[in-house]
TrEMBL record:
InterPro entries: Fe-S_Maturation_MIP18, FeS_assembly_SufT_put, FSCA_dom_sf, MIP18-like. It holds the Pfam family FeS_assembly_P. Residues 87-163 form the MIP18 family-like domain. This is Probable FeS assembly SUF system protein SufT. The lineage of its organism: Bacteria, Pseudomonadati, Pseudomonadota, Betaproteobacteria, Burkholderiales.
Amino acid sequence: MTHRRPREDVLMRRGVAVEAIPSGAPLTLQAGQLAQITQALGGSFTLAVEGQLVRLKGQDADAIGKQPPAALDIPADLHIDALEPLVWEQLRTCYDPEIPVNIVDLGLVYRVAFEPMDDGSADKVRALIDMTLTAPGCGMGESIANEVCDKVLALPRVGEITVNLVFTPPWDRSKMSEAALLALGL
């Protein structure tokens, strides 16, 4: 049995850029516009506005009277061997705005790897992430990939990131964790 939080009505406190779901098209909400929070996970918000679902980035949480996500408290001198678990932790804070399960538990992340920076910098690495989408035509793919980039680049020791959207092997429910299956009632 899945328990859902009740929707919360909010009033837009200022104009703000959002993305339409599922197309990913940019939209602007106006101050004074009424919305309902349908999902608040991973620092971003899914809002229902006049029959349209939209995604509000966490950095714009003040537009609906909420606090932006807290900054990471990770030492800048992080040892490179401790980086991979932190990347996976960050990826677990990324959500498809229509599905209340993170992209790791959905089985969307196929690979996390690191390589040296082109400039030979020893204190930074390039993160390489291969991920897929639940459907190849998902309009939110670029938005989810951008969120992955933002969150992984916020980690110390990551100087660059490449996120590859791949569709081989194709995603299916068998890639989901048990926790994801339970959360979705499958």
